[in-house]
Design a protein that fits this description.
Layout lengths: L5 E4 L5 H11 L11 H10 L8 E5 L3 E11 L2 E9 L8 H16 L3 E7 L3 H9 L3 E11 L9 E3 L1 H11 L20 E5 L5 E6 L5 E8 L8 H10 L7 E8 L4 H6 L3 E2 L4 E6 L5
Length: 280
Amino acid sequence: MAHEIRTVPLAEVPLEDVCQTLNMAYAGYIVPINFDPPALDRRIRAENICLSSSHLLLLEGHEPAGIMLIARRERVSRIAALGVVPNWRGAGIGRRAVELAIDDAVARGDDRQILEVIETNDAAISTYTKARFVPVRRLVGYTHVPAPSGEEIVPCSPGEILPLLERVYPSDASWQTSPHCFVGATAPIEAFRTLDGSAAALAEGSGGVARLLAFAVEPALRRKGIGRRFIQGLLGRYPDKSWSIPATLPEFQAAAFLTATGWTKSSITQLEMGLVPIAS
């Protein structure tokens, strides 16, 4: 029996309540996730999550059954998160949420819709496949052990290195690695560059593991060792911490360089899936 679902735009829901529902909906997830208002606010701004297009999913009696975050850039929309609370998993809530996302995207006139899903999440992949999403590419992450200080690099503002990222990053960068995500980046994200600005990176070292979020070297200066020396200096900024690159990087992007500089590919991978065009 299908349950009646009522949707509430997340623009009408306090951020604390959004986090509470997300945490319920992602309980027992493959990768442990905890949402808190400051971190979610940063993610909303970075990933262009549209709260008016995102929904709280309520059942009869206004019981939260799930939640869906929708990100939008130009005429592309993305299912940025979709979770169902444990008591309602297997009841078709996720399938109906995906249908809602597609219908909304068609009504807006979007050209494409994409999402990412952990590759071992068979249930979610089945839901998206039935909705006519198909795999586009694999997204991977990396880890790196703590490293001593290397060549000197200097802190700078994220806006200072954004032009370099925009020049270097491919036009088909994944949603979360696109330079769009770092426009207006604020603490705890930090930016670093070489003294001459030929290489730069964005990192976040406030947690137990430091994260490399973006990295670029001027194209004309590649294969001169600048990138290797810069990475060594960057790792040395947090000498007691291991490092990670989230599984958001297209599989072959910078793979040879990362391997050569001591990064190890993570076991967690994601599939980027797409529905192109939405109305076909």
